[in-house]
Automatic annotation (TrEMBL):
Residues 2-173 form the Tr-type G domain. Keywords: Cytoplasm, Elongation factor, GTP-binding, Nucleotide-binding, Protein biosynthesis. InterPro entries: Beta-barrel_SelB (IPR057335), EF-Tu_GTPase (IPR050055), EFTu-like_2 (IPR004161), Elong_fac_SelB-wing-hlx_typ-2 (IPR015190), P-loop_NTPase (IPR027417), SelB_WHD4 (IPR015191), Small_GTP-bd (IPR005225), T_Tr_GTP-bd_dom (IPR000795). PROSITE patterns: G_TR_2. This is Selenocysteine-specific elongation factor. PANTHER family: ELONGATION FACTOR TU, MITOCHONDRIAL, ELONGATION FACTOR TU-RELATED. It is found in: Cytoplasm.
Length: 625
């Protein structure tokens, strides 16, 4: 499966991030008039970097100025690799260090250091610059990052940097495309004639054109009318891609940066989170119990308070602190999500961490609470199983032992819970995933029935085509069989449909169809070409094939050959008359005398009898079965 990644350009203001992005991609990411005039990035800038059959890479140009740190966090939160841009003539600056802290707290592991503007310094000075940068980066996520020398104006090192980015990401796992879709919104705008458009990086899952979605935490029901990836229309978007989605059912004024577009109700809306945090090394001020903070999570920026359970203040702390964040507004979060904490005034980055439990409850101050949070942090056996199955969708018992590090006896006991389902006697999955797929398949069939009301349904292979990219076939087979037993789905031959669906002629063609059938029935056994009846009734060519198949499948029309068809009542009456007035076997001549037909109709009718199992031909005779 093709893999999608987004990389970020980070670093101090005026160290050349935007120019480097433009040189790499041929796209100027500074779009705003103010950005052009001031020559600084204010909003996030995006551009396509590279694409082949295996991989697609996009670039986020992150604003470097301290005042635009909010946009910087929103941009970095969804990226897979960071290019830290450090100007050769200035080295690591205060803003660079803050960016490094933020990248570490957000869990960014892959990094490349681009030493820019190398033409501004003497060649013999470059080694000193590299040594200084290495020293400054000790203890950060960039401590072992490769250094690349570049100059955007002369194009020195640009190809080397691009090749290193591609090589690094080709070895990296992409984000989870199998889970439920989630896109934190970082931009909302309108397009004339199209309506509301949101843009963001797909954190996980995938989205299809026409898919029903929900804007959280507001709970607004919307539909993905159109999808674009880098200004090109696309039928779908995957985890790791930058996507713009045209939404129906919502106005621009109803949305804002920080809202999250999701495909599932399983995401948590919360104001209270149990968390594990770390703080920066050089805090300027004490962090006190219940002090106001700004929490940046995804693309949301929300005011709240920090609540400690084992202290009342801190300034220097190198380890992880278990505590709680209580927010003034609802956000969307799940276990493992990363966030940044900043002091609103005086402004500084305090630290960051990850969500242990997005649905935190009020706890008492004391070591007992810390002990409980430690257990939560590690995760209960059930939570570890759920986490492994959310990632892989289905796993054998042995694979679960490997993935969760649980003892077999403990694992077997946990798997007795109703939360887990044994699919095929070999692999386990989550009941929530089964229910999610049942809903997805139901919605797909419902939409298909609406678009093709004369068809029986979808064959299983076609129904599974999209889901197979995300889920194992064993899980999908289980969903269908379970749905058939529960009365949600039904099967007729190879076709799957919704239980209460019956194929039918669409209402707008019902009258013409009935008129055509009345004329066919009135002509009895001496009919014209069937095509003439369809044309005469004004049935459009776009639905002719579907209508013919429907009428034949329902027995309303019986084809004699490729040209002639009889009304089903006429065919059945002819069969009964011929059976009543012939013996166990008969010849063509006898049939002609009984029905009064010429060979033009007689031969196709008799062949139709053979094909439908009414008779069996032996030399020049027919024998009734």
């Amino acid at each position: 499966m093709k893999r999608y990644f987004t990389i970020g350009m980070a670093g101090h203001i005026d160290h050349g991030k935007t120019t480097l992005t433009k040189t790499l991609t041929n796209v100027d990411t500074d779009r705003l008039k103010e950005e052009k005039e001031r020559q600084i990035s204010i909003e996030l800038g995006f551009a396509p970097l590279y694409e082949d059959e295996e991989i697609q890479i996009s670039v986020v140009d992150v604003p470097g100025h301290e005042r635009f740190i909010r946009q910087m966090i929103a941009g970095v939160a969804g990226i897979d690799l960071v290019v830290l841009v450090v100007a050769a003539d200035e080295g690591v600056m205060p803003q660079t260090r803050e960016h490094l802290d933020i990248l570490g707290f957000l869990g960014i592991k892959n990094g490349i250091v681009a030493i820019s503007k190398i033409d501004r310094v003497e060649e013999e000075f470059i080694e000193l610059v590299k040594e200084d940068i290495r020293e400054e980066l000790q203890g950060t996520v960039f401590a072992e990052a490769p250094l690349v020398l570049v100059d955007s104006l002369s194009n020195k090192g640009i190809d080397d940097l691009k090749e290193l980015i591609i090589h690094t990401l080709k070895k990296q796992e992409m984000r989870d495309v199998k889970g439920a879709f989630r896109l934190p919104i970082d931009q909302v705008f309108t397009v004339k004639g199209q309506g509301t458009v949101v843009r963001g990086t797909v954190y996980e899952g995938r989205v299809e054109e026409g898919q029903a979605l929900t804007v959280m935490p507001k709970g607004l029901e919307v539909r993905a009318r159109q999808i674009q990836v880098h200004h090109k229309a696309s039928k779908e978007a995957f985890a790791g891609q930058r996507a713009a989605i045209n939404l129906s059912g919502v106005a621009k004024e109803d949305l804002e940066r920080g809202d999250v577009l999701v495909s599932s109700e399983h995401f948590n809306v919360t104001r209270t989170m149990d968390v594990a945090i770390r703080v920066v090394e050089d805090l300027d001020y004490m962090v006190k119990q219940r002090m106001p903070i700004k929490c940046h999570i995804g693309t949301a920026e929300v005011m709240g308070r920090i609540v400690f359970f084992d202290r009342n203040e801190l300034k220097e702390e190198t380890g992880e602190i278990l505590c709680q964040i209580r927010l003034d507004e609802e956000i969307v979060a799940k276990r493992g999500d990363r966030f940044i904490l900043r002091r609103p005034s005086p402004v500084e980055t305090l630290g960051g961490g990850w969500v242990i439990d997005p649905k935190g409850e009020k706890h008492r101050f004391g070591e007992r609470t810390i002990a409980e949070l430690e257990k939560k942090k590690v995760g209960t056996p059930g939570e570890r199983i759920v986490s492994a199955l959310m990632e892989s969708k289905s796993l054998s018992l042995d694979d679960l032992i490997t993935r969760t590090s649980l003892e077999r006896d403990i694992l077997v006991e946990e798997l007795k819970s109703d939360d887990f389902i044994l699919l095929n006697g070999k692999e386990y999955t989550l009941r929530a995933l089964v229910e999610l797929n049942e809903e997805d398949l139901y919605n797909r069939l419902r939409d298909y029935h609406t678009e093709f009301p004369m068809k029986q349904g979808l064959n299983k292979a076609e129904l599974f085509q999209q889901q197979m990219k995300l889920y194992p076939k064993a899980l999908l087979d289980y969903v269908i069989e379970r749905g058939i037993q529960a009365g949600t789905f039904k099967r007729k031959e190879q076709y799957i449909s919704i239980r209460d669906f019956q194929p039918h002629v669409p209402k707008n063609w019902k009258t013409r169809s009935n008129n055509m059938l009345d004329k066919l029935k009135a002509d009895g056994m001496k009919v014209n070409y069937f095509k003439d009846y369809l044309d005469g009734a004004g049935i459009p060519s776009s639905i002719v094939d579907d209508m013919k198949k429907f009428l034949v499948d329902e027995g309303i029309v019986v084809p004699l050959d490729e040209q002639y068809s009889w009304h089903g009542d006429v065919f059945n009456a002819a069969v009964e008359k011929l059976r009543a007035e012939t013996g166990q076997e008969f010849e063509v001549g006898e049939a002609k005398d009984v029905l009064g037909l010429s060979r033009k109709y007689m031969i196709p009718f008799l062949e139709a009898l053979d094909n439908r199992g009414f008779t069996r031909r032996i030399e020049n005779k027919r024998v009734w079965r």
